[in-house]
Amino acid sequence: MTSTTGPETRIEADPKLPTIRIVREFDAPQERVFRAWIEPELVAQWLGPKDLDMKIDTWEGRTGGRYRYSMHREGQEIAAFYGSFHEVRPATRLVQTFTFEGVPDSVSLDTATFEPAGEGRTRVTVLSVVDSLEARDAILASGMEHGVVEGYQQLDALLAAG
Description:
The chain is α+β, with helices and mostly antiparallel strands. It has helices spanning 30-38, 40-46, 133-141, 144-160; strands at residues 2-5, 9-12, 19-26, 53-59, 66-73, 76-89, 93-100, 108-116, 122-129. Strand 6 (76-89) and strand 7 form a beta hairpin.
């Protein structure tokens, strides 16, 4: 399965593997895109759908660190997520676990790679591996595509603002 949302975001699911691959280019150098991915005050400005506010409870953006954040609408928590940073390689690679507190028995291992995509541009590829095709399909059916696309649009605006 391949889904193209807008002109730039690709969300792909191999029908035979419990994976989701997201590919997106950003109009900023690797170092700036990576910083927006790992620094909590920047992450809180772009991650997730536009109609939700993010509250970061814990964010240790380093190899061996952990995180927890929640998403709020009109002051009410509607979802929370947590995980561990397994590898933080500045400007090139980020490996972390990701768990939705609503389904604590399901965890994904997410690897984000950051690479040049032309003059001053960066391509980010995120590969999420889950434990079953059913879990993968549930993630895809959850509306994650909407959150990813809107979050990336917010990241575009954040990067454009400098």
